[in-house]
Amino acid sequence: MSSKGLPFLGEFELGAAFPMATFRAPRGVQDILPQSAPVWVRLQSTARAICERYGFAFIETPTFEEAALFVRGVGAETDIVQKEMYTFEDRGGVQLTLRPEFTAGIMRAYIEHGMHTWPQPVKLYSLGPAFRYERPQAGRFRQFHQFNVEAIGEQDPLVDAEVILLMWRYLQELGFDRLSLQLNSIGCPACRPPYVEALKSYYSGLRTSLCPDCQERLHRNPLRLLDCKAAACRALLQEAPRSVDFLCPSCASHFQELRLLLEAAELPYELNPRLVRGLDYYTKTVFEIWAEGIGAQNAVCGGGRYDGLAEALGFRPTPGVGAAAGLERLLMLLQCHEQAERPSAPLAVFIPLAGPARPLSLKLAEELRLAGLPAQCTYGNRSLKAQLKSADRLGAQYAIILGEDELAHGRATVRCLGRSEQVQVPLAQLVDWLQEQAAVPAGERAVQ
Ligand code: HAM
Known about the structure:
With 448 residues, this protein is α+β, with helices and mostly antiparallel strands. The chain has helices at 37-54, 67-74, 79-84, 103-112, 157-173, 192-204, 212-220, 231-235, 249-264, 309-312, 327-337, 357-370, 384-393, 404-409, 430-439, and strands at 57-58, 64-66, 86-89, 95-98, 122-131, 143-152, 179-185, 270-271, 283-291, 299-305, 320-326, 348-352, 375-377, 398-402, 411-416, 421-426. The protein contains 15 helices and 16 strands. Strands 1-5-6-11-10-9-7-8 form an eight-stranded mixed sheet, with helices on both faces. It has a five-stranded mixed sheet with strand order 13-12-14-15-16, with helices on both faces. Strands 2-4-3 form a three-stranded antiparallel sheet. It binds histidyl-adenosine monophosphate. Residues 101-103, 132, 134, 140-141, 144, 146, 148, 150, 278-279, 299-304, 306, 322-326, 328-329 line the site of histidyl-adenosine monophosphate.
């Protein structure tokens, strides 16, 4: 077979030996290694538990969708669509995109599966990877994971408040305390055009003072001028018009009620007139939750209302509100605060020294595991000393030595690794004995 038709194989023929190469993960993506796994799993299990409490059901949507979904949903003028999407043509000639975010795909699923006929709002959550071709830096990756929630089919600001509360509680439950909720309203298609005009006329007089990107944005997407990080542009922000001053009566009362609800829930927020977000589907409420301690990429969660998204996808007007938290950023923060966790240290490590002890080790380890206790075996024909060292490295409480002598007498030598004491335990009673030890606090365990 040749590499014809498989351009990614380049000069290599299938079947020919590949040169020895050391592969590294592609730029901007990372492995979540076992030492991070307990925190990583907790980020997900806490998300699931909190969604249960707030009445959000799990939905899994595909990792890739038709490219046009994001162009129409996220917005043709956004950085995401202009510069960051991983788009490819499949073998059938269809343009597909690895999802850069979840909302457009979930709205697609809502429409496709007739969820508008379900009781509204339909409240959904997801956990999974998203992909953006961004400039990698601490906290910014090309593949990252989101905990995403959406409530579709209801315009009541109470839903906005609940989505914000859900995310806030999620972060609190993970142990974050230095958080700040940034809140703004960017209006709707009725009140945004006059605001955008006011922004344009403010900035057009200052055009030459803007950074080159913002000179371009002034035509394409003037709202994005507000969250430019360049020093020159930041200096001009102070006097820039604020969207909250242009809200129509409906947007103004929505925002007012949301603020009252957050105050009643005692959730402190900061009004941030510069918060505009990078996705075009937002209407009315936009918010971010910022965390201290992870540098420039401090937005651990972002979201808002998107009452125009369903229509942009060709469906009837359907309100929605949602948010997503970035799991890598949370992992970074938690790892700053916590010691890297290890998987549970085994209660017992079985060391089979004689051939027939090997199946017995496996059987006894299985019995302990079935009883819910962590147990491991050592492997290979290494010396007792080397195997005891392995057991110690695993952090085991007990090494269970099974040699010829032990098998002949129907017992095991149990060595308490912390104290270098040992005792003989009849094989028939070993599992019960270990279970009893596990029930006693570690410091009080007896080797007898
Ligand atoms: P977003 O602000 O683009 O919103 O992303 C949400 C969160 O994902 C960010 O606050 C950040 O924590 C994380 N994140 C985004 N990009 C990266 C990256 N390159 N590397 C690491 N983490 C990242 C959305 O995606 C909206 N779909 C949220 C939403 C749901 N709005 C309504 N419903």
